[in-house]
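2024-03-11 09:14:02 INFO receiving multi-entity request
2024-03-11 09:14:02 INFO entity count = two
2024-03-11 09:14:03 INFO echoing inputs for audit
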Amino acid sequence: MPLAIFLAGIFAIAVVMIGTAGIQVYQATSGGPVTSDCVAEGIAEDARGALGVCHIVEGIRSRPQTIVWLLGILVGASASVAGWSLYKRMPTRRQREHCIAGAVLGVQAMAMSGVFFWFRSGNVARFARNFLNIDVLEGAMDGFLRGALNTVKLAFVGEFGGIAIGLVLAVLAISARRTVRAPAITYINFFRGTPLIWQLPFFYFIFLFGFDIQMDSFSAAALVFALNTGAYAAEVFRAGIQSIERGQVEAARSLGMTYLQSMRYAVVPQAVRRVIPPLMNEFVILIKDTALVVAIGLTAENYELFTFSREIYSETGNATAFVATAVGYLAITLPLIRIVNAVEHRLRSGLTGVVGAAQ
Amino acid sequence: MNPDGSLVKLENIHKWFGNLHVLKGIDLAVKPGNVVTVIGPSGSGKSTLLRTINMLEEPTEGRVLFDGTEVTDIRTNLNKVRTQIGIVFQSFNLFPHKSAKENVKVALEKVLKLSDAEAEERAGEQLRHVGLEHKADAYPGQLSGGQQQRVAIARALAMKPKLMLFDEVTSALDPELVKEVLDTMKELAQEGMTMVVVTHEMGFAREVATRLIFMDDGQIVEDGEPREVFQNPRDERFRAFLSHVL
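2024-03-11 09:21:47 INFO inference complete, emitting structure
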């Protein structure tokens, strides 16, 4: 019985997800011409990409689709009712977990089908026309790749510049002397306390007009990202250094080391390991924040992902490019997030030389 | 040596932590070759006293003289003085990212500016001294508490200090590991090292120490030859303390 509930849950969620995707694929590969229904919904028969959009709409509205979602709700409901009512009576933990997993999957299948039904009751055609019209992206691949490259470039320069700035700021910010601390803390508070989308134009124009430095908006943006990231990296370094036990500095100083030597040979090597995961997290955040360069605008050869898709939008009046951009960002950030998690896991699993002294 | 023949001399040391008066006018002189144990209830200020000797705690008032230098003088080069005063801590404070040998070597190279070969040789010598040459490449996390503490002792000794300070070095150890550390310290005492030892080990105080100091409430209330002090405790608080620990 518990296994049956578990399998029912899996079946329910699989039917909804795979069934919906399958119907879409079927429609895309062997769907008919643009239907009169689609035309009535405002999808012009001769418009670019009309056929693809119509297929998406027809797929969602088709009878098989209704059956798939209803089946998901039905099986999902049975699995969750059975699972919730029986799990406490199961004799082994394994059977109990099967019941609970089946019930949870059932609820998820019902929720997903419900949302799909709700979505279908709205103006699906209009949404699909504006956001899912893949045909308007034709020939944009090169631009997208260049945009992705520029996004990574901006984030890279920003992150490494920020790490350098942050290291200096952190050393100043942990000083025991208020006179040394004050400028660093003012800097950190300023950059953490104002919006990046404001900092970008402000500093760009200060560089350009105030200081009369000739620079293109791409370099200016990279510089502002570095200045901004510097403030956050400084806080990460400060926390990392202060997380090292006091005894480490005491031991180093007792051996006759100067303050800087104790930092260099005892504290910083340990702190560096602790700050790697949060710094990589900053990098992921920065990759997405590069989109804010729209505030100062870029020249065509410097377009990053977001600017590029906005350009397509203004040319075609179609927002599908923004959907593609999201895929682009995910393609960059997901592997990074995986790496961060792996590094974190490695550091936490207590490798030699990472664990504390007293244990 | 100081003009009066002592190696360390504390004069009227006071220490305040905010409103807390932790040391209330300590006077103490330690002669070369002496092994002084400091005992007392927790919070009596014995660790703070020890830590003022190498200025890990700066006294609020009073003077510390070490080997003819006034340590408390702000113009004194503290880093230089500290190379001659070894200290071993309760929580070992080994550098966890360095092997046992690297722990011993780092200050030899970076502070005493010895060549790599010299540092290597001296580190090996000191690890042998504490019986751990076979653990030279182990990291602190791979050593037992007793072994870590012996590496910490070797690290301090490698600087060839004139004075060794021990701050409750066995308190964080499992009972079966205490002896190996105490034996190392005993050996050191027999070699003639000048030592100030804050401890709860009454056996060590009785057998090894040449002088015993009992502190209570920031003051030295009993001071003398260990055997005699244990047999004829004069101070009331010391008698009460002994009745609790013995």
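2024-03-11 09:21:48 INFO post-check: Chain A touches chain B at residues 245, 247-248, 250-258, 261, 265-266, 269-270, 273, 350, 352-359 (CB under 8 Å).
2024-03-11 09:21:48 INFO post-check: The radius of gyration of chain A is 28 Å.
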